[in-house]
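REQUEST FORM: STRUCTURE PREDICTION
Request ID: SP-0412
Submitted by: Lab K.M.
Chain count: 1
Length (residues): 313
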Amino acid sequence: MRRQIATLVMLLLAGLMMSCASVGKGAKATVTECPERMFWRIDGTDRKGNPSTVYVQGSFHLGDGKMYPLADAVVKAWENADRLVAEVSGDDFVALQSDIMEEMAESYKRAGGRKITDGLSTTQRNTLVSFLDKDVMEQLAQFEPWITTYSISAALYMGSGLSTEYGLDSVLLAAASEAGRKVEGLDTLQTQMDILTYGSYDDQMDMLRDLLDELKDPSEEIADAKAMYDSYLKDDRASFAKLFQEDMEDDEDKHQFYENYYKMVITDRNKDWAKDIAGYLREGGTTFIFAGAGHWVGNDSVFAQLRKIGVIE
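STATUS: Completed
RESULT:
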């Protein structure tokens, strides 16, 4: 899961309106689980007592042609929304690449002459070479381990047939840009960078070693990725939530720091996003949010956080 979470944002093309059953009015907002893939509708009232709506499209940050076309109801909701919201804003998405390059330069300095290959076993180094060209590996070895971890992840998912090009966030951000529509962000750019660069050098080495150990048989990891993607495509929300949770628990069994990592990546962000949604409902109009599907399912989802703070029934 950490590989999927940190693949960084950007995907879909969406809309809904008529397909979700109408929901009753009350002091609290109500949530409808719509029949379209990973799609929800929140109905509430703004500060003036007028109806306000938030559509939520759970996204998958990688994909292929099977993800499209999007359902007509999703496209309609996208087209008619007053406000578009992604994990990061459209402006921050544009700035992300240059920020990562700057962060890499700082990463080289922070590594202070250490080489990640010195902290790997022979088997782990051989696994690394199987994913990255040897010359590339030697170059990346001089940076902090997070860069190599995500380079391997990218190579792994390319091998699975999925790509960020078809990721829902990327597609929707591109569509918004082409249409000249502003996209607000649930996260700041710094939040995204903190996820990428999480942990001390030693923590990052542990994460890299864990990944390399898992990849002794890449077919198993690819199968896990495809299983999660298939559950997403089938809109099997229960299976998706189960796979998502199991992936986190597997990591947390290995090292204590994973608990803090997932708190930052999932729990803390879900709490912040719930507060943002409460604000969108108060401001009124129609908001269309597209963000990682893992944040909207399970016992600790954004919807669970909205219930805890009394925004939804």
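NOTES: The mean pLDDT is 88.
Reviewed by: T.R.
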